[in-house]
Amino acid sequence: KYKGCPWRVRDYQYGDGIIGLHEEIDHFYRYVLPTPCEHAIRNEVVKRIEAVVHSIWPQAVVEIFGSFRTGLFLPTSDIDLVVLGLWEKLPLRTLEFELVSRNIAEACTVRVLDKASVPIIKLTDRETQVKVDISFNMQSGVQSAELIKQFKRDYPVLGKLVLVLKQFLLLRDLNEVFTGGISSYSLILMCISFLQLHPRGICHDKT
Fold it and tell me: Do 135 and 90 touch, CB atoms closer than 8 A?
């Protein structure tokens, strides 16, 4: 419509070279930030899955981690959840069966990766088509998310750098570890390392 990518601001003339790149990244960042409605939809998905978990294991705790907790998620990003409880053997198949039988997810969209270094259930929510990854007893994910939130406060430009690189990798199918890509967490740590190794006098929104 405006002769460019969807984040382009109407009648806006980008500057030359690196200035124009900075301006476009800024526009892209504002474009992909979640609306209140998108945020509410994701919270509803979490509540539905949490209700299923509590109906089977009332003492279990469901925590959000990953990009949804840190706020560094694209519209296409999945929700990372961890279920904390006491089990001798991780109940991956039990939860898979309940999620399908209660119409949270279609059977064809559910995958149990029980041989992965961190076993997870991958599914697509039937109502919203939002993708969800569920792991068990991995408390480090929650701690990592809190660490990233602290780095976001220390480096205000971190969010813009991460989201534009996440989109870059997504378009090239390099955003999933199990298909040969790089994890979102690794990408964020790389960006933090870059900002630590290339300190600026001040870190703000200017070019």
Answer: no
Residue holding tokens 């029980």? Answer: 114
Instruction: Give pLDDT tens digits along the chain (207 positions).
Output: 556 789 988 889 999 999 999 999 999 999 999 999 999 999 999 999 999 999 999 999 999 999 999 999 999 899 999 999 999 899 999 999 999 999 999 999 999 998 888 899 999 999 999 999 999 998 898 999 999 999 999 998 999 999 999 999 999 999 988 789 999 999 999 999 999 999 876 655 565
Distance of CA 4 to the CA centre of its chain: 26
Residue identified by tokens 């039937």 is 126
Distance CA 132, CA 124 (A): 6
Contact (CB, 8 A) for 175 and 169: yes
Three-state secondary structure of 1-16: CCCCCCCCCCCCCCCC
Q: Which residue has the tokens 């991956």?
A: 92
202: which DSSP letter? S
Same domain, 61 and 128: yes
> Is 5 part of a structural domain of the chain?
no
Same domain, 86 and 171: no
> How many domains does the structure of the chain reveal?
2
Q: Which residues pair with 63 in a beta bridge?
A: 82
The model carries a pTM of 0.86
